[in-house]
Design brief:
Elements lengths: L3 E8 L9 E3 L10 E5 L7 E7 L9 E6 L13 E9 L3 E7 L16 E7 L4 E6 L4 E4 L2 E2 L13 E7 L7 E15 L11 H13 L4 H16 L1
Antiparallel strand pairs: 1-13, 2-5, 3-4, 4-13, 5-12, 6-9, 6-13, 7-8, 7-12, 8-10, 10-11
Length: about 230
């Protein structure tokens, strides 16, 4: 079984906090969508919810929650991707976004545009999603940017959870309940069958390592014997 490493970022053993997040909705462009991230220090689940309005911007619209603080930084270079654990959802399409660059704001207070790295997903019920770095696509102002520099994994500056209208494809009330967001490292990418979750893979690995005379223990014993012969 592959070795793994799990770094909790939000939720899980790290309590959710509304102070970590702020709304970034289409109101900055004259829209009428709105979002909230409802959670507390005792929350096991964070609820991303609100209303996606497509009337104000002629079919376009978005609502999102992003991490606060332009000086924050996460070094995720030792990991293979992001693990999302979803508790429940309304079945609409959502987007996980990462940024490795935050520019100073314009004189009018608006943010300058930078490249975003996005992954779209849709779920129903409880589900664990593993997003490899290669699954994120670079976009600039909503359009794919094929000539973007690689994502700087040592300097992740922002996480966002977004819902878009996809030009009228979805609108109205939305709700996504998130258990946790974490970075995950594994020696193999877990594009596992539908009946095998990441949690099960990690559990099976733990059982194997704890079992007497496991292949791992036998291998370590054989190596120890060989080393003693050479000394």
């Amino acid at each position: 079984m592959p070795s793994t490493s799990h770094l909790p970022l939000f939720g899980g053993p790290r309590a959710w906090s509304q102070d970590d997040w702020v709304a970034s909705d289409d109101r900055v462009r004259g829209g009428a969508s709105q979002s909230e991230l409802t959670c507390s220090a005792s929350s096991l689940v964070a609820k991303f919810h609100g209303t996606l309005d497509i009337t104000a911007l002629g079919g376009a619209g978005f609502a999102s929650q992003r991490t606060r603080g332009d000086d924050r930084k996460w070094d995720l270079s030792r990991y293979d991707g992001i693990e999302l654990v979803i508790d429940s959802s309304d079945g609409k399409k959502y987007t996980l976004t990462l940024k490795d660059e935050i520019l100073p704001k314009r004189p009018d207070g608006r943010e300058q545009s930078t490249v975003s790295w996005e992954y779209d997903f849709r779920t129903r019920g409880r589900q664990t999603i593993f997003v490899k770095w290669s699954d994120f696509r670079a976009t600039y102002r909503g359009r794919e940017k094929e000539d973007a520099e690689p994502l700087d994994l040592k300097n992740i500056k922002r996480f966002s959870i977004m819902i878009r209208s996809f030009f009228g494809g979805q609108e109205g009330a939305f709700s996504l309940n998130i258990v946790s967001i974490a970075a995950l490292r594994t020696e193999r990418y877990l594009d596992e069958p539908e009946n095998e979750s990441i949690d099960e893979v990690l559990y099976e690995k733990s059982k194997e390592e704890d079992t007497p005379n496991s292949p791992r223990e036998r291998r370590q014993g054989w190596l120890g014997w060989l080393t003693s012969c050479l000394l």
